Amino acid sequence: MVEIEAQANSLDEIGRVIDFSVLRNRIGSWLDINWDHGFLVFSEDTEVLAALKAVPGQKYFSLVMNPTAENLAVFLLETLCPNALDTGVKVTRVVVHETENCKAEARA
């Protein structure tokens, strides 16, 4: 599970920072397409990448960092979120949960 916290200089016309459906459509859909039910692999793990490429239709995402929960939170905060939200809203916190009791957080 991923938590996203956002802020804006002002609220929209009905009193929101951002409509949750916008977050879901832009960030949630990216996660579904790229990470959900796939392997997250460090780009320097060449043997793992070769094995994944050898399996037809295998979904994987290669990262330039080791895919720890901490690094995934930083990637989402610094790489994905600024590009996904071109709305004037800034993502200030991302939490990546490994389990119910284990999570990693990145803050802007």
Quick summary:
With 108 residues, the protein is an alpha+beta fold. The chain is 36% helix and 25% strand.
Describe the protein's architecture and organization.
The protein has 108 residues and is of the alpha+beta class. The protein has one domain (2-35, 66-107): Tetrahydropterin Synthase, Chain A (2-Layer Sandwich), CATH 3.30.479.10. Helix content is 36%, strand content 25%. The chain has helices at 20-34, 46-53, 69-84, and strands at residues 2-7, 39-42, 60-63, 90-97, 103-107. A three-stranded antiparallel beta sheet has the order 1-4-5, with helices on one face. The protein has a two-stranded parallel ribbon with strand order 2-3. A hairpin with a 5-residue loop joins strand 4 and strand 5. The longest helix is centred in the C-terminal third of the chain and has 16 residues, at 69-84. The radius of gyration is 16 Å and the shape is elongated. The two termini are 19 Å apart.
Oligomeric state as shown: single chain
- Which regions have little confidence, pLDDT < 50, spanning 5+ residues? none
Shape: elongated
Indicate the mean pLDDT.
Answer: 94
Read across the widest sheet, the strand sequence of neighbours is: 1-4-5
Beta strands, count: 5
**Gyration radius from CA atoms, angstroms:** 16 Å
CATH architectural arrangement: 2-Layer Sandwich
- Count of folded domains: 1
Topology as a string of helices (H) and strands (E): EHEHEHEE
Strand proportion: 25-35%
Number of helices: 3
Report the biggest beta sheet as strand number plus sense, adding barrel if it closes: 3 strands, antiparallel
Give the termini distance in whole angstroms: 19 Å
Q: What is the helix fraction of residues, given as a range? A: 25-40%
CATH class: Alpha Beta
